[in-house]
Amino acid sequence: MLLLGLNLLTSCAMVSVSNVDSRDYVKQRRGDVLTTGELSLYTGTVLQILGQDESSCRRQAAQCAEMLTTAMGLTSEQRLSTMAELWLYQALWYAKPRHKDLLAEIDAYLMSARYAYAYLFYSGVAPYNRLFTDRQTQVRDYYNFAVQQAATLLFAQSQRRWLQDPDVRLQTQNWQVRSLLQHQRFRQQALPQQLLAASSLSFQGLRNQYRRDGLGAELVAVGPDASVARNERGFSELPVPVVTALLSFDGTTLDEVLASDQATLHLVDPLQQREVRIAGNPIPLA
To answer: Structure pTM?
Structure first.
């Protein structure tokens, strides 16, 4: 018996322990497709559970994500958060000049936003019950970034009737998207020509810049008339109004959300609206 035990010990893989620099620790914990360009530790763990090679998944992120839909042994949160990150990785791949495919890129952003949306609101755990988890922060960022990219790309399409008529839907390769312009400036003035990510702009002449964390993409609307708008109270508003964009997906259950190919782009005024209710949860707007 002793000899058998020794043989078993010598055949096992060696486990070693080493010190990790605090900066490396933070990078490992927080690093993901948006911060380092690589898949996160959480996604890597899920792929290890399933016996999948991470480098292969990076080369075929969309196929790897679809494989997870039927994979066994995962929690709903693991499955949805990993699929959100993999689809975002795929979208960023399509965005590269040598792989540029605009329609596929838009669809991949919509897929990433859908799985992040499902994780945040339909995974069976309320957002406030995992308020301090790193993974929820990452997935919220996947959602916000995917919405930002999808909104700016969709808004730039030559077809613009769908932006003004909620009964008209824009057809992409795999999605039907409608818009709800809930921003007061859009109701009173002409439709903006562009939506730009606020993070891509710099502002001069301001003593302080204020922003708040929350759900949604922080955008700036650029119209043909950049003159300062004076409202009924007598003070001047920014000539380029700030906008928070959200994507919602049809369905009231997880299965319905994941089966739907219908999405709605909401453009709201963050100065007039501080929160939105999704699946019964009050969610602060960015």
So the answer is: 0.87
The string of DSSP codes covering the chain is -HHHHHHHHHHSPP-------HHHHHHHHH--TTTTSS--HHHHHHHHHTT--HHHHHHTHHHHHHHGGG-SS--HHHHHHHHHHHHHHHHHHHHSGGG--HHHHHHHHHHHHHHHHHHHHHSSS-GGGGTT-HHHHHHHHHHHHHHHHHHHHHHTSS--HHHH-TT--EE-SS-EEEEEE--HHHHHSPPPSEEEEGGG----S-S-------BSEEEEEE-S--SPEE-TTSPEEPSS-EEEEEEEES-SSHHHHHH--EEEEEEE-TTT--EEEETTEEEEB-
Residue 196 in 3-state DSSP?
strand
End-to-end CA separation in angstroms for the chain: 64
Angstrom distance (rounded) from CA 253 to CA 255: 6
Q: What confidence score (pLDDT) does residue 105 get?
A: 97
222 close to 201: Cβ distance less than 8 angstroms: no
Q: What is the pLDDT along the chain (286 residues), one digit of tens a residue?
A: 444 443 444 445 566 666 666 666 566 678 999 999 999 999 999 999 999 999 999 999 999 999 999 999 999 999 999 999 999 999 999 999 999 999 999 999 999 999 999 999 999 999 999 999 999 999 999 999 999 999 999 988 878 888 888 889 999 999 999 999 887 766 556 677 788 998 887 666 666 666 789 999 999 988 765 554 555 555 555 667 889 999 999 999 999 999 999 999 999 999 889 999 999 999 999 9
